[in-house]
Amino acid sequence: MFKDKNHFDLFDLSPAFSVDLERLEAFYRKLNQQFHPDVVSQGSSREKLEATLLTAQINEAYETLKTPLKRGYYLLKLLDPNGETDQDKTVKDPDLLLEAYENQEALSLAKTPQDIEPLLETGQAKKASILLKVEKDFDHRNLTQARLNLYRYRYYDKLMSDAKTQLSEKLKDNASTA
Which of 46, 47, 71 is nearest to 60 (CA)? Predict the structure, then answer.
């Protein structure tokens, strides 16, 4: 049923980086209510299988579109099918590499939660700023720059994840020694 639809079509959205998340959520619920396997629990094995496959497709599309990084890479693939799609490829950005080195060093030297909090604040601000750039890049169909900014966003997302993990560990350590 949805075989020929891309993720944006599935949710009746225009292919764009900027997505109305409330509308996406509402449409997701509507599709889930309509096609969830429980709806055909008394149906044939084939109907149950089809419902399961449709639900998996709906869930995958939803997870992709609600997450900025996944949405960005999906949109790149959609808009530039012959373009570079390797999400794990690194770029040669000396400023970002130097900043990454400094941030990782600061994170490894952090002794207290207060040492980590500035990294979280900076990372969050950088992520927000880069998201605006990515949106602008897609609006202007500057896919090369969008790809580079998605890479930068991915770095800050990873930094935030690492910092949150370390913060959690530091808080646990402080709680156990108190």
Answer: 71
Of 138, 140, 103, 110, which Cα lies nearest the Cα of 124? 103
Q: Is the dihedral of CA 22, 23, 28, 31 positive or negative?
A: positive
Is the CB of residue 127 less than 8 Å from the CB of residue 164?
no
Considering the entire predicted model, what is its pTM? 0.85
CB 36 within 8 A of CB 51: yes
For residue range 59-98, what is the model confidence (pLDDT) as tens digits? 999 999 999 999 999 999 999 888 765 555 666 788 888 8
Backbone angles phi, psi at 19, to 5 degrees: -130, 135
Per-residue model confidence (pLDDT) at position 38:
81
SS3 143: helix
